[in-house]
Design a protein that fits this description.
Distance between the termini: 114 Å
Oligomer: single chain
CATH topology of one domain: GMP Synthetase, Chain A, domain 3
Strand order of the largest sheet: 1-3-2
Largest sheet: 3 strands, antiparallel
CATH architecture of one domain: 2-Layer Sandwich
Strand content: 25-35%
Number of helices: 9
CATH superfamily of one domain: ANL, C-terminal domain
């Protein structure tokens, strides 16, 4: 019989004892009642933890299906979820409806096929459910409600707009021109958190509303946000603030001047030693001028005659008779008894006639030298440029390789100033 090989244990070293299945029962019997109670509690806690982990793994992960639903949409969606046997729950604040994450996309497609959610506004689908025999007034009211709903849906398609309400004021048509009124509109916007609308977006909303209603002018559209701020004020004031194209034009002018100044001064002061900033004041007003000028009297020989009138008056004896033409004057004259003499003015008189008084009057009208000029000034003229230039001091290296900073002289500053003005 082979004896077991026993390896001695060094003094002070712990050797774990391997318990056989029979020894576990013996050890448990050796425990005190308090130790047995603690062991039972630990085993129960471990079992509870395992069961809780398993149940938590079986619970579906809920995700948000829709949030900020109106009461009408919320009730219709819950009814549809119950018909589809889809579990749902609300968040603590009740602002969001949650369903299992693995069924979100499927549920949204099914609800969309039913036209849900409708967004809390009604559109032209309202006209499809009209009752027979409805009055003309009720039909007109429903049409206006449908228009308001469709416009609100269009405005809500803007990313920064959470919800929108549109109110239309459409006057009744009149056969009298003086009593005719233009329609107007008011838009109330609820913007998303941290989002703002720029001038271009507000202008787009105004033109969207005005273009959708016949004979509505853009100036008759008012846009207000949820804080009561008048967003359409800039559009009504006309000229306060710049639109996107004007702002881009100003920035291009400023950037061009900055680039020109830095390109001129860089060879003089070195690379990365100059920085320029330009502010341009641009006049975007549209101006038209009409002038009518008259030149003073000029040389008659150079003028153009419009009309000329000569008048001669003769007083004396032996002159040819004159008067209003009549029956006698239409008769041929009697033979002259004396030769006929013609005056310088062209009047024929007898040679023996005696002239006591001769009056001559001549009137000549010349064309007036008038000039009418119409001038349309270009838009976007530069009224003023403000320029600031920062130049580093010159760096000088001596014979030992030591670099020192030398300030610019007055002559160099004057040269830089003149170059900037000429730029």
């Amino acid at each position: 019989m082979t004896e077991p090989n026993i390896i001695p244990t060094p003094p002070g070293e712990f050797v774990p004892e391997v318990l056989a299945p029979g020894n576990i029962t013996g050890r448990y019997k050796q425990l005190t009642p308090q130790q047995k109670m603690g062991l039972a509690v630990g085993i129960a806690a471990l079992i509870s933890l395992l069961i809780g982990s398993w149940m938590w793994g079986q619970t579906p992960d809920y995700r948000v299906l829709y949030s900020n639903l109106s009461d009408r949409d919320g009730g219709a969606i819950i009814e549809s979820l119950q018909q589809l046997n889809i579990p749902y729950k609300f968040t603590e604040g009740g602002g969001a409806l949650m369903i299992p994450a693995n069924r979100i996309h499927e549920t949204r497609l099914k609800l969309a096929s039913q036209g849900l959610p409708k967004g809390g506004t009604v559109g032209f689908e309202l006209m499809e459910n009209q009752k027979f025999g409805i009055t003309q007034f009720a039909e007109q009211v429903n049409y206006q409600r449908a228009m308001e709903g469709e416009l609100a849906r269009s405005v809500q398609s803007i990313s920064a707009v959470a919800s929108a309400r549109v109110h239309l004021a459409i006057p009744k048509p009149s056969v009298f021109v003086k009593e005719q009124q233009k329609p107007s509109a008011s838009v109330v916007l609820t913007l998303r958190g941290g989002r703002l609308l720029d001038t271009t977006q507000v202008s787009a909303i105004i033109h969207l509303i005005s273009s959708s209603v016949p004979e509505m002018s853009a100036k008759n559209v008012t846009v207000v946000d949820q804080d009561g701020s008048l967003l359409s004020a800039i559009q009504e004031e006309g000229g306060i603030g710049l639109d996107a194209k004007q702002l881009k034009y100003v920035q291009q002018i400023e950037q061009n001047y900055i680039q020109r100044i830095e390109n001129i001064l860089t060879p003089l002061v070195g690379e990365n030693n100059v920085h320029a900033q330009v502010t341009a004041n641009i006049d975007f007003s549209r101006t038209e001028q009409t002038a009518e000028t008259y030149k003073p009297n000029q040389n008659p020989a150079d003028g153009t005659i419009r009309s000329q009138q000569n008048l001669e008056t003769l007083n004396g004896s032996g002159l040819n008779p004159g008067g209003v033409p009549g029956a006698l004057t239409n008769q041929p004259p009697a033979p002259a008894t004396a030769p006929i003499v013609t005056t310088p003015g062209g009047t024929q008189i007898a040679s023996d006639a005696k002239i006591d008084n001769l009056h001559k009057e001549s009137t000549v009208n010349y064309e007036v030298d008038r000039t009418i000029s119409h001038t349309q000034l270009p838009v976007g003229m530069i009224k003023r440029l403000s320029v600031a230039v920062v130049v580093n001091n010159r760096k000088v290296t001596d014979a030992k390789g030591k670099v020192s900073v030398v300030p610019l002289t007055d002559a160099e500053k004057s040269q830089i100033n003149n170059l900037v003005k000429d730029a």
